Amino acid sequence: MANDLLVNIVSPSGSIFSGTASAVIAPGSIGEMTLLPKHAPLLSSLAQGKITLMGTNNTKSVFEINSGFLEISNDKLTILVEDVL
Predict the structure, then answer these.
(1) Do residues 23 and 32 make contact, with C-beta atoms less than 8 angstroms apart?
(2) Which three-class secondary structure state does DSSP give residue 11?
(3) What pLDDT shows up at residue 56?
């Protein structure tokens, strides 16, 4: 877990995902971004697209969103979305 991100995806209706990932690919409003452990602190808006979580055991989870925001700091990634499609 030392090389993982703690990821929380939340909508107004509640928690959508809570767990760890080795990498997260997200649709930033100015382009796709990849977030890895030890990423610099960042706050960004999200565009319509897919959030892809890469698990440590080669698993992949994909969530399609309309828009949202993310914040990453100290290997903790919080993604706020209106809804998952």
Answers:
(1) no
(2) strand
(3) 76
Q: Which two tokens stand for residue 36?
A: 């890895």
List, in sequence order, every residue forming a beta bridge with 17; answer none if it has no partner. 9
- Tokens, residue 20: 């760890």
Domain extents in the chain: 5-77
At residue 2, the pLDDT reads: 63
Q: Rounded to whole angstroms, how far apart are CA atoms 54 and 23?
A: 5
pLDDT of residue 11: 94
The first and second tokens of residue 4, run together, are 């993982």
- Assess if CATH 3.40.50.1000 describes domain 5-77: no
**From CA 50, how far away is CA 70, in angstroms rounded?**
13
Render pLDDT for 16-53 as a digit per residue (tens, 0 to 9): 999 999 999 999 999 999 999 999 999 999 999 999 99
